[in-house]
């Protein structure tokens, strides 16, 4: 029993905290310490969740948002990863691109939504572009940091053994920066979920953001909370999956 708790204790604690929060929330509503009009009880939200799940509306919106998130993540994350490693390996390229990253990163991505809509229209492209922008910056910045923190001796050893650029990229830079890359991916997914929700509130007829905004317009508070909970749940699941991937790829960090 003890070894089992030692192996899975961190996971159990991570699952326990949201459950405790929901229990406290339920009790606060039951004892009328907070308004059920604005903060409906989790049990009431669960009833609405079951109803939406049975009709299929919930899964339709979840599937649409996940598809947009995945495409945006690929379009923004892969270039961010590759360019980040190149910037970490090449000082001239880093000096050339870093000012562009530093000057555009602070711009709130949600403030760019009107421009994105102007360029890409109200279709799928604008939603995917918003996610791509949100994912790009955390991935590239963490990747550059990860490559720069690799000790120079590893690159010297690679050079002495005749490693070319591709081999240095594949066997030294990518594995050495992996912990920072995974952190960037986690941050990117979180930002992607935020931005896809915002983008779907404007000019969309599907997706979790649309579901939340439409529920607000109809004053259907329980449905609105179902959408919010689904976004929170997706973020929680993605974090757990990435933690497991990190433990598998980088077992020494879990020790």
Please outline what is shown here.
The chain contains 12 helices and no strands. With about 260 residues, it is mostly helical.
Task: Give the strand tally.
Answer: 0
Overall structural class, as computed from helix and strand content, comes to mainly alpha
Rounded radius of gyration (Å)? 22 Å
Instruction: Give the end-to-end Cα distance, rounded to a whole number of Å.
Output: 20 Å
CATH architecture assignment name of the largest domain: Orthogonal Bundle
DSSP helix fraction: over 70%
Please name the fourth-level CATH homologous superfamily of the largest domain: MetI-like
Strand content range: under 5%
The total tally of domains equals 2
The CATH topology of the largest domain, please? MetI-like fold
- CATH class category name of the largest domain: Mainly Alpha
State the shape.
globular
Count of individual helical segments = 12
Q: Main beta sheet, described?
A: none
**SSE arrangement, N to C:** HHHHHHHHHHHH
Catalogue the unreliable spans. none
| Mean pLDDT level | 84
Report on this structure.
By secondary structure, the protein is mostly helical. It has 2 domains: 1-39, no CATH class; 50-254, MetI-like (MetI-like fold, Orthogonal Bundle). Helices cover 82% and strands 0% of the residues. The chain has 12 helices and no strands. α3 (57-89) packs across α4, α3 runs parallel beside α6 and α5 (113-120) crosses α6.
Per-chain topology:
Elements: H1 2-30, H2 42-55, H3 57-89, H4 91-104, H5 113-120, H6 124-148, H7 152-160, H8 165-176, H9 178-200, H10 208-217, H11 221-249, H12 251-254
């Amino acid at each position: 029993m003890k070894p089992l708790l030692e192996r899975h204790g961190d996971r159990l604690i991570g699952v326990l905290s949201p459950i405790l929060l929901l229990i406290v929330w339920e009790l606060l509503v039951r004892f009328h310490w907070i308004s059920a009009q604005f903060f409906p009880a989790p049990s009431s939200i669960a009833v609405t969740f079951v109803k939406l799940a049975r009709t299929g509306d919930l899964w339709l919106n979840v599937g649409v948002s996940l598809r947009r998130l995945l495409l945006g993540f690929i379009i923004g994350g892969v270039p961010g990863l590759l360019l980040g490693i190149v910037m970490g390996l090449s000082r001239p390229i880093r000096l050339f691109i870093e000012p562009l990253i530093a000057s555009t990163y602070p711009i709130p991505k949600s403030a760019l939504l009107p421009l994105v809509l102007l360029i890409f229209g109200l279709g799928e492209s604008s939603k995917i572009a918003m996610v791509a922008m949100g994912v790009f910056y955390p991935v590239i910045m963490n990747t550059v940091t990860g490559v720069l923190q690799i000790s120079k001796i590893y690159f010297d050893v690679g050079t002495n053994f005749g490693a070319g650029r591709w081999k240095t990229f594949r066997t030294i830079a990518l594995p050495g920066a992996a912990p920072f890359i995974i952190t960037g991916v986690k941050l990117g997914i979180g930002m992607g979920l935020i931005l896809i929700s915002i983008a779907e509130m404007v000019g969309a007829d599907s997706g979790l953001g649309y579901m939340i905004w439409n529920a607000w317009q109809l004053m259907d508070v329980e449905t609105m909370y179902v959408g919010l909970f689904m976004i929170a749940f997706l973020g929680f699941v993605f974090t757990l999956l990435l933690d497991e991937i990190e433990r598998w790829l980088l077992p020494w960090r879990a020790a």
